Amino acid sequence: MKLLIPFLVMFSLLGCEDKFDSRITEDLRWLLDADPKEDFEKSISSGDLRFVGVIGMFSTVPYFDEKCVTEDKVRFIQISDMVNSYEQEKLQAIAPVYASNFNLYMLKHWNEHGIKRCDS
After folding, report:
1. Do the beta carbons of residue 75 and residue 53 sit within 8 Å?
2. Which of 27, 37, 61, 86 has the greatest number of CB atoms lying within 10 Å of its CB?
3. Which residues contact 81 (CB under 8 A, 6 or more apart)?
4. This protein's superkingdom (predicted)?
Protein backbone atom coordinates (compact mmCIF):
# COMPACT_ATOMS: atom_id res chain seq x y z
CA MET A 1 0.00 0.00 0.00
CA LYS A 2 2.87 2.38 0.85
CA LEU A 3 4.28 1.92 -2.66
CA LEU A 4 0.91 2.45 -4.27
CA ILE A 5 0.36 5.96 -2.86
CA PRO A 6 3.45 7.60 -4.48
CA PHE A 7 2.60 5.84 -7.75
CA LEU A 8 -0.96 7.19 -7.68
CA VAL A 9 0.24 10.71 -6.86
CA MET A 10 2.76 10.63 -9.73
CA PHE A 11 0.17 9.18 -12.11
CA SER A 12 -2.33 11.94 -11.28
CA LEU A 13 0.33 14.63 -11.72
CA LEU A 14 1.33 13.24 -15.09
CA GLY A 15 -2.30 13.26 -16.14
CA CYS A 16 -2.58 16.97 -15.33
CA GLU A 17 0.65 17.68 -17.15
CA ASP A 18 -0.60 15.88 -20.25
CA LYS A 19 -3.76 18.01 -20.24
CA PHE A 20 -1.64 21.15 -20.06
CA ASP A 21 0.64 19.91 -22.84
CA SER A 22 -2.37 19.01 -24.98
CA ARG A 23 -3.76 22.52 -24.49
CA ILE A 24 -0.39 24.04 -25.45
CA THR A 25 -0.27 21.85 -28.56
CA GLU A 26 -3.81 22.87 -29.53
CA ASP A 27 -3.03 26.54 -28.87
CA LEU A 28 0.04 26.38 -31.15
CA ARG A 29 -1.55 24.52 -34.05
CA TRP A 30 -2.26 27.81 -35.86
CA LEU A 31 1.51 28.17 -36.41
CA LEU A 32 1.45 25.41 -39.04
CA ASP A 33 -0.38 27.68 -41.50
CA ALA A 34 0.75 31.06 -40.17
CA ASP A 35 2.22 33.69 -42.48
CA PRO A 36 4.24 36.26 -40.48
CA LYS A 37 4.04 38.93 -43.19
CA GLU A 38 0.29 38.54 -43.63
CA ASP A 39 -0.20 38.53 -39.85
CA PHE A 40 1.98 41.65 -39.54
CA GLU A 41 -0.14 43.43 -42.15
CA LYS A 42 -3.34 42.46 -40.30
CA SER A 43 -1.87 43.70 -37.03
CA ILE A 44 -0.90 47.05 -38.53
CA SER A 45 -4.29 47.51 -40.18
CA SER A 46 -6.04 46.83 -36.85
CA GLY A 47 -3.72 49.23 -34.99
CA ASP A 48 -1.85 46.50 -33.09
CA LEU A 49 1.82 47.55 -33.14
CA ARG A 50 3.09 44.92 -30.70
CA PHE A 51 6.07 42.66 -31.31
CA VAL A 52 5.73 38.90 -30.78
CA GLY A 53 7.61 37.02 -28.09
CA VAL A 54 7.84 33.41 -27.00
CA ILE A 55 7.43 32.54 -23.33
CA GLY A 56 7.99 29.27 -21.50
CA MET A 57 10.50 28.91 -18.68
CA PHE A 58 12.21 31.96 -20.19
CA SER A 59 10.95 34.60 -22.55
CA THR A 60 12.49 35.84 -25.77
CA VAL A 61 11.46 38.65 -28.08
CA PRO A 62 13.55 38.68 -31.26
CA TYR A 63 14.73 42.15 -32.36
CA PHE A 64 13.43 43.79 -29.20
CA ASP A 65 15.31 44.97 -26.12
CA GLU A 66 14.29 42.66 -23.26
CA LYS A 67 14.39 45.47 -20.68
CA CYS A 68 11.73 47.36 -22.66
CA VAL A 69 9.16 44.54 -22.76
CA THR A 70 5.69 45.62 -21.62
CA GLU A 71 2.23 44.24 -22.41
CA ASP A 72 1.48 47.17 -24.70
CA LYS A 73 4.61 46.49 -26.78
CA VAL A 74 4.83 42.68 -26.87
CA ARG A 75 2.36 39.82 -27.07
CA PHE A 76 3.58 36.35 -26.18
CA ILE A 77 3.14 32.90 -27.65
CA GLN A 78 3.00 30.47 -24.69
CA ILE A 79 5.06 27.30 -25.01
CA SER A 80 5.68 24.49 -22.50
CA ASP A 81 8.93 23.73 -20.72
CA MET A 82 8.24 20.00 -20.92
CA VAL A 83 7.77 18.52 -24.37
CA ASN A 84 5.90 15.23 -24.52
CA SER A 85 5.38 14.63 -28.22
CA TYR A 86 6.97 15.19 -31.60
CA GLU A 87 4.03 17.38 -32.66
CA GLN A 88 4.44 19.61 -29.62
CA GLU A 89 8.19 19.92 -30.17
CA LYS A 90 7.65 20.77 -33.85
CA LEU A 91 5.10 23.48 -33.01
CA GLN A 92 7.32 24.92 -30.31
CA ALA A 93 10.24 25.03 -32.74
CA ILE A 94 8.14 27.06 -35.19
CA ALA A 95 7.16 29.67 -32.58
CA PRO A 96 10.51 31.52 -32.32
CA VAL A 97 11.00 31.39 -36.10
CA TYR A 98 7.54 32.90 -36.58
CA ALA A 99 8.27 35.58 -33.94
CA SER A 100 11.59 36.45 -35.55
CA ASN A 101 10.06 36.90 -39.00
CA PHE A 102 7.03 38.82 -37.72
CA ASN A 103 9.26 41.09 -35.64
CA LEU A 104 11.50 41.98 -38.58
CA TYR A 105 8.46 43.47 -40.31
CA MET A 106 7.39 45.24 -37.13
CA LEU A 107 10.90 46.58 -36.50
CA LYS A 108 10.97 48.12 -39.99
CA HIS A 109 7.55 49.65 -39.37
CA TRP A 110 8.57 51.10 -36.02
CA ASN A 111 11.80 52.51 -37.49
CA GLU A 112 10.01 54.03 -40.50
CA HIS A 113 7.48 55.73 -38.22
CA GLY A 114 9.90 56.81 -35.49
CA ILE A 115 8.28 54.68 -32.80
CA LYS A 116 10.53 54.20 -29.78
CA ARG A 117 10.90 50.78 -28.19
CA CYS A 118 11.83 52.13 -24.77
CA ASP A 119 10.39 55.07 -22.94
CA SER A 120 13.82 56.08 -21.65
Report:
1. yes
2. 61
3. 56, 57
4. Bacteria
Q: Please check whether residue 43 is in contact with residue 22, taking contact to mean a CB–CB distance below 8 angstroms.
A: no
Beta 51-55 vs 59-60: how paired, if at all?
antiparallel
pLDDT in tens, 5-33: 544 444 444 444 456 567 778 889 999 99
Q: How many CB atoms lie within 10 A of CB 31?
A: 17
CA distances from 65 to 74, 75, 81 (A): 11, 14, 23
pTM: 0.79
Rounding to the nearest 10 degrees, give the CA dihedral for residues 90, 92, 93, 95.
Answer: 130
> Quick check: 102 and 50 in contact, CB under 8 A?
no
